[in-house]
Amino acid sequence: MTPSKPRVGLFVTCLVDMFRPTVGFSAVKLLEEAGCEVDVPMDQTCCGQPAYNSGDNESARKVARPLIDMFADYDYVVAPSGSCAGMIKKHFPELFANDPAMADKVKALSDKTFELVSFLTDVMKVDAVPASFEGKVTYHDSCSGLRELKVKEQPRKLLNSIKGLEISELSEPETCCGFGGTFCVKYPEISGKMVGDKTKDIKQTGAKTLLAGDMGCLMNMAGKLAREGSDVEVRHVAEVLADMTMAAPPIAGSNSKTGGE
Amino acid sequence: MNVSTSPKFKENVHGALRDESLQRALGRLKSGFQEKRSAAAAKMPEFEALRDQARDIKNHTLENLDHYLLKFEENVKANGGHVHWCADAAEAREVVAKICRDKNAKSVLKGKSMISEEIGLNDFLEKQDLKVVETDLGEYIIQLRHEPPSHIIAPAIHVHKEQVADSFRETHTGRDPNRSLVEPRELLDEAREVMREHFFAADIGITGANFLIAETGTSVIVTNEGNGDLTQTLSRVHIAIASLEKVVPTLEDASSILRVLARSATGQEMSSYTTFSTGPKRDGDLDGPEEYHVILLDNGRSNMLGTEFQDMLRCIRCAACMNHCPVYGAVGGHAYGWVYPGPMGSVLSPSLIGVDEAGHLPNASTFCGKCEEVCPMRIPLPKMMRHWREREFEKHLSPSSFRYGIKTWAFFASKPKLYRAVTGIASKVLGKMSGGKGKIAKLPLAGGWTDMRDLPAPEGKTFKELWAEKQKQQGGSK
């Protein structure tokens, strides 16, 4: 008998659920290929970040609490987002700091929650993926994944295992794209300036595809590139790693000459 | 007094983003500060350990602040100096004015001091018929331009050298109108010549303080131009103005923090001048002031002790946070509307002038975390900005439409079935609205998003809908 597979509860994230289901299926495929048994609790909604970052901790707890119970029985909880995984791993313990009854549960959840790509490399020890991709991509390091969860080399390692794929780095891969959750609609002008600087950087890399690990940042950058009429295609890194780029057109569609408009 | 324009932050931002000259100047942050800091940190294997040590020194000091301040006072007095405890800006201004009056002073020289900006000292002294001259070149430039500083260590970072030349021609009359003021060296030489005359004529010299050392009663300033030394040694009276949290226990502690200060600020190992002032001129000293005063300003800081904002009092004003902040980099310092810009200002300003006044500042952050990454004192700046947002939310200061939005969202997000139904409909509707193009250029009620960028359209069905369908097909019973 083979040893039992780790049971992973997929935290899809609200943006992937609503805007980009392909990322969810890519995550399932990658996790299964890495030897996990994947389950999706159907009552999950959001990690509570919009409320938490707006100073409304009461609402954040209201949204977070059911999630803590829902994922209690899995070996691991994995999210295709550094921001949402970071919320559960780093911020839930602070959010419930004054609630001793929750402490153990929150700590247990925090310990077993991971961002997708770093989970694959650091926990499941995946060092290559059997995907195919031709051409130059560039990669944006989303802030929460980078600074809260230290996701930096992991996606590059897996991307570099794909034959035909070449990474052309941004001049400032670690500079925020200006999304920032509610920030982008509260201060649209600053956000617009920041994402404009980011798309300039993206274009100078010469890459025809932009990848990152967080839907918020991706939608921000894809939306700006689309507005500028750029032919750079934008995808979640999981889509490329799972070899699922054929499953959906790029985020915000395609402006490329060969694209399917 | 220093009036804030922080409530008009959005208007300030609007102007700043359209100010081409400012935008060109802000482009200098990367090569001017970021690359230098990163090189300086990389050259020093123990840099991270030093940051821990610096943090611990300040934490210990803040836990025992009364003790070290009293010790500092005792030692200043023992050296023949004077200490003035000032609760607020008005008190501090009055103390300075009184010293000036007592000495029949006509002119005041200033070394760079953010506390002086905080208490609006220059305007106040000028109203008392005192001639006030800033001696730090950047401060001098903005004084000529009648502007506040836009950065805490590079006050004139928003000004170009051509603009400096214009200010000099206008102010430095009696010089050859056809002289060349093109090269930075020419500007520097002229400033230096003009400044010399002021130095020799000064009655009172006012500086800030980077540290106050409790065990010796010493104030320390860190400069790159040497103007601070001249200000305090050539004047008859030296007044150092400092906020309470500048105190450290020992000389050794100051030295430890100095090792992270310049590296974080400008990427230098040490600033060109680090000047230790301990009391007035003694018998036999060749130079130095006749009197030495230290103004210890509270102005709201003691209220931060014991709160979630205490960590902010570790700040050593290196400016690394603003040098690396993408928001500061986009709008510059004046947009923040009060003395302290960038992430440290977004935490400190609400403490000092009230969150109802400075409420925009802690909100205008993406929480990217870069500031905390580079802060030599490991101040958790994003976390403290979040605490301000909590206070605002509690006090109902955030816009009601926004509060309503968050509450509505939380209502749906805590009712899974309803949430699933609503997101399912929204995905479909938005997907349709894109007309198959994958994006939406204009969306009612979402102008904040679509004014700046397209909205990527949903694929059509939600993940959970598709997952349920798939489970069904596979005969699963999830």
UniProtKB/TrEMBL annotation, chain B:
Any GO molecular function: 4 iron, 4 sulfur cluster binding
DNA-binding among keywords: no
Pfam families, A to Z: Fer4_8 (PF13183), LUD_dom (PF02589), LutB_C (PF11870)
Residue ranges annotated for the 4Fe-4S ferredoxin-type domain, each copy included: 306-336
InterPro entries according to UniProt: 4Fe4S_Fe-S-bd, 4Fe4S_Fe_S_CS, FTHF_cligase-like_sf, Helical_ferredxn, LUD_dom, LutB/LldF, LutB_C, NagB/RpiA_transferase-like
Residue spans crossing the bilayer: none
Keywords: 4Fe-4S, Electron transport, Iron, Iron-sulfur, Metal-binding, Repeat, Transport
GO BP annotations, alphabetical order: lactate metabolic process
Highest taxon in the source lineage: Bacteria
Xref: PANTHER family: LACTATE UTILIZATION PROTEIN B
NCBIfam families, alphabetized: LutB/LldF family L-lactate oxidation iron-sulfur protein
Protein name stated in the entry: (Fe-S)-binding protein
Organism ancestry: Bacteria, Pseudomonadati, Pseudomonadota, Alphaproteobacteria, Rhodospirillales
